[in-house]
Amino acid sequence: MVMKKNIVPGIVVGLVVLIMALPILINILGNSMLKEIKYEELEDTMKETGNYGFKLIYVAPSSDDNLKSDQKDVLETVRGFNSPTSGEPLTAIYMDYDSLSDSEKNAVFGETDKKVAYMFINNNELLKTVIGSITRGDLSNYVSAYSGNGIAQSMKNYKIAEDAEEYSKLVKQKKKVTMAVFGRDTCFYCNQFKVVYNRVAEEYNLDNIYYFDSSTYDSVEYNKIMDLGLKIPASCNDGKEIELQPGFGTPLTLFTKNGKVIDCIDGYVNRQNLITKLQTVGMIEAEKE
């Protein structure tokens, strides 16, 4: 009887500790798996990424024996970055390949027999879908690039002119339009726009998109660029055309051809609006209806 009396308090204490720890255990276990959505929820999920938000949707078969460990790898990689807007860790979402219809599989994967995909969404737009399994290192680079945390050198598709003379030659081209984005790496909207035009440059294989960072570019050469006689169109300066000079709002995008500015963008625009502008200035062909 004495032993039983001693055991009972121990059991009670153990149960109390277990009950107190249960919410923590549930939270840990729950956070080791990705939230799951159906394909029909994809559009609403994209809308939830407004105001420059980011989401990664990981698509893989639920029948895969390695799904749990793969999801954990994705989750840990994504949570290694913080949102540029809220400062909170980024999150990822899961979509079951096995639950997709043939038409839904085609919409995500196209004509391929692969069953794994990574869908990168920023500010309401699906910017890129990577088909097939990738390493954690590559995933980290993709997340960083498409969330606005930073684009690795290997993933940069825009260019940086070496000096004012090089840019002057680009401006004077008669048969080719040059797009130049003036900004700085400490500007939030500059970095968000960089995500967009870097992706569009990749998507359309463009080699004539340039970026000028006023805070890191050589100051002497940058001032020479300001002195090239280019004008900011009225549409990008409160209805008044002015000479390009320090003090303009960033990002400012100028499209030049034959020595003149032919169009501009004031601030950030999303992927579709940028594509429309590039079609207007003749940098890419308009899609046929």
* Spatial ordering of strands, largest sheet: 1-3-2-4-5
Q: Number of DSSP helices?
A: 9
Q: What proportion strand?
A: 15-25%
Mean pLDDT: 89
Low-confidence stretches: 21-31
Number of separate strands: 11
Could you tell me the radius of gyration in angstroms?
25 Å
For the sheet with most strands, the description reads: 5 strands, mixed
Helix content: 25-40%
Q: Categorize the overall geometry.
A: elongated
The end-to-end span amounts to 89 Å
The SSE string, one letter per element, is HEHEHEHEEHHEHEHEEEEH
Q: Your description of this structure?
A:
Strand 6, helix 7 and strand 7 (209-213) form a beta-alpha-beta unit. Residues 21-31 have low confidence and may be disordered. It contains 9 helices and 11 strands. It is of the alpha/beta class and 289 residues long. The strands form 3 sheets. A 5-stranded mixed β-sheet has the order 1-3-2-4-5. It has a 4-stranded mixed β-sheet with strand order 7-6-10-11, covered by helices on one side. Helix content is 38%, strand content 19%.
Provide a compact summary of the structure.
The protein is an alpha/beta fold and 289 residues long. The chain is built from nine helices and eleven strands. The relative contact order is 0.10.
Question: Which properties best describe this structure?
Answer:
289 residues; 5-stranded mixed β-sheet; 4-stranded mixed β-sheet; 9 helices; elongated; alpha/beta; single chain
Sequence-ordered SSE layout with sheet pairings:
Blueprint: H1 2-31, E1 35-36, H2 42-47, E2 54-60, H3 67-78, E3 92-96, H4 102-109, E4 117-122, E5 125-131, H5 136-147, H6 164-171, E6 178-183, H7 188-203, E7 209-213, H8 219-226, E8 231-232, E9 242-243, E10 252-257, E11 260-266, H9 271-281
Parallel strand pairs: 1-3, 2-3, 6-7
Antiparallel strand pairs: 2-4, 4-5, 6-10, 8-9, 10-11
Helix pairs in contact: 3-5, 6-8
